[in-house]
Amino acid sequence: MQNKYISIYDDLVKKIKQNIWPIDSLLPSENELTTHYETSRETIRKALNLLSQNGYIQKVRGKGSVVLNYDKFTFPVSGIESFTELMDKLQQDSHTYVHEIGFTPTQNKIYRTLSPDKQDAVWYVHRVREIAGEKIILDKDYFNEAIIPKLSEKICSQSIYQHIEETLGLKIGFAHKEVTVEEPTEEDKALLDLKGFYNVVVIRSQVYLNDTTLFQYTESRHRPDKFRFVDFARRTK
């Protein structure tokens, strides 16, 4: 059964998208929402926190919850989520096209990263992500074949992480990420709908299992106008 705060979150997102509360307007107060949804204040706060995390509102002390411009897709830099999971959360129509799948040449630098002893094969999978009819992400993934065997075009067109966790029974632990802004390559220009944009946002990740085994390297290339990359930071002294 779905948690109540999730259903309230979904309803609030729907109303924001229907422009019931326009950009820069205030959501009803926590007390008003508590009465409207006939629930506890804690449940409302959980729903509002989720709205904030996903870029729909900004909480302003003494003012309330201000509706933000959500016409960008919010990608959590510090999290590890599959494209499928993100699109489900953002409720976006999307499609994945597998452009290429095969084995990485042994002289490739990424091959040496994932197979330092040169004993294992390394998959490469290049996928184009289409959102709302526009091709705006090129994902270039590499996997150690000894850890992630038997990849297929069908698996890659759906969710590789679902395959890893549910079929292979592995637990994905953490990742190191680097974010840069770069000029588009010829491959970017050929596969993405860049529409005159002269930069792409590139996130390079090394992803590890729970036991600290490095199993994946990813280069995810994004058209810059469609994304808001978010992180959580805490000041310490």
TrEMBL record:
Residue intervals of the HTH gntR-type domain: 2-70
Entry-linked InterPro entries: Bact_HTH_transcr_reg, Chorismate_lyase_/UTRA_dom_sf, TreR, Tscrpt_reg_HTH_GntR, UTRA, WH-like_DNA-bd_sf, WH_DNA-bd_sf
Gene3D superfamilies: Chorismate lyase-like, Winged helix-like DNA-binding domain superfamily/Winged helix DNA-binding domain
Keyword Transcription regulation among UniProt keywords: yes
Pfam families (UniProt xref): GntR, UTRA
Keywords: DNA-binding, Transcription, Transcription regulation
Classification via PANTHER family: HTH-TYPE TRANSCRIPTIONAL REGULATOR TRER, MANNOSYL-D-GLYCERATE TRANSPORT/METABOLISM SYSTEM REPRESSOR MNGR-RELATED
Lineage: superkingdom: Bacteria
Keyword DNA-binding part of the UniProt annotation: yes
SMART domains the record matches: HTH_GNTR, UTRA
Protein name: Trehalose operon repressor
